[in-house]
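If your schedule permits, I should be very grateful for your opinion on a structural question. I would ask you to consider whether the tokens describe a fold that such a sequence might reasonably adopt. Thank you for your consideration; the sequence and its tokens are set out here.
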Amino acid sequence: MARDETGQIPDAEGAAQPNGDGRAPSPGADAGGERGDANAQIEGRHLDPRVAALVRERLTLDEVLQQSRRYLAQTVSACLEEVVAATGERLSMMAQRDLVTRVLNAWLAEAREHASQAEATGAAPASAPQARAGGGGKTPIDPAAVAREAEGTSGAAADPESSRARRQRLLETKATIQPIVMERIDISVAASLEPDELERQIAEIVSEVLVEQKLQLNRAEQKQLVRLLINDMVGLGPLEPLLADDSVTDIMVNGPKQVYVERGGKLELTDVEFRDNAHVMNIATRIVTRIGRRIDESTPLVDARLEDGSRVNIIAPPLAIDGTSISIRKFSKKSITLDTMARNNNVSDALATVLKIASRCRLNILISGGTGSGKTTLLNAMSRMIDHGERIVTIEDAAELQLQQPHVVRLETRPPSLEGLGEITMRDLLKNSLRMRPDRIILGEVRGAEALDMLQAMNTGHDGSMCTLHANSPREALTRLENMVAMSGVKLPPQAVRTQIADAINVIVQISRMRDGMRRVVKVTEVVGMEGDVITTQDLFEYSFDGESSDGRLSGSFRGSGLRPHFSARADYYGVANALLEAMGCR
């Protein structure tokens, strides 16, 4: 079982052996019986004790904490390979990865506990990491040898240049055999197969074609080749590894030869490339077709979403001069709450409490910030405080909100057809939602004329509504809201518009992505009312920048104003006034 250079097991299974008659099964072959027999042990949990026992023969607990996580993952993978070889087990790649993660995490937890106990008793841990032979005369693991095995080499440790050369050779092999493989499969049948079964059958076909073409690849390279082919067939091609990387939050494709990602709030260039502009356009078409939209020269701008909820924007030539541009805001697999944000220092504990109370008390909340500042994430976190007995209607251009309540109606806009007919705008959906008996209306983002309908909804009994808006400060958010009302075409005096805004909006939460990559709530502002023609506000919290640490992280504090919130009477009605005043430091 080969491993990649990060210590993780690759996503595709190795080439399987052909059937007894020497022919690889067709993609449409019925493998239900085989899968059914393996389902009971697909997770591989019954192998955990055996792998863990073998792992403990490799390194002592004192030595574990002195090794890199990559090396430890390679060690666990090597042990799993031995156990699988000895037992004849057949595990999917997902089950293998899960098993390695479980054993590795348990191993590290045990090592940390051992180190804590040793420190408490005054025992000195081993000072230098040394692999040792385990019971039964096991040979110590050589980290360089493991790394060479992961790269599929047998000589000296590979350098970046040789790694690039191997990758290029793999891509050339893929270009050679892909037409042959595509002739032997039925794409419609392949798309309907379970992922594990699809990998197995494609691996058998690839193995057969490699022999016919007299091409030699080691097992690790065959696994990678199978994964590349499957990604091109039914996935998103070169983007699949980036979508599977949990550390990546944004993916930006600028033509075929330039792909950037965001990690930890910082942009970095990747080595991912497409074959040409047509390849990028093919992936873009695959994305939008799944949700019934299209991308071509007549419709070169599309907002879409992936199956997991990730938001996608695509702009194609002739508007995109250097080739089709794809921007993906990845769907977070982790459940983000206000408590999670407090632990990550995105907000303070007191600020998190005030936001929880604001959501619980059915205040109309406007979340303001720049692109990529975390507005939608904060909206999702605040929506968790909505009572499960309420009916919620969400309206978005591309559905990405992750509400946890049971009674949610999700609405999504629709672009016009080829004839320019059938467009359904956010304003149309907002007007219709008022006839759906909603308790709360949540807009993914307010951009234009729908602002007037949103304000009217907030002023006509739909308390607790939330929306996001692009602005650099709470005061600017109010100004932008006023300008968007003017875009509706309804002629209203400026004072009437501002009065309606002041009556509708209760709290504005300003969030920002700061220069260290961290998203922070930088200001919470309450709308108090009107004084003449001016909307009056008061700041409840503000982030104060103090300095910068040696690792580049900004340091600062979330400072409360100590003022009594204007909505404290409503908080008293909901029985949380004491908690609100305590969080504000008014008691």
Notes: The domain at 338-584 is CATH 3.40.50.300 (Rossmann fold). The longest helix spans residues 93-121.
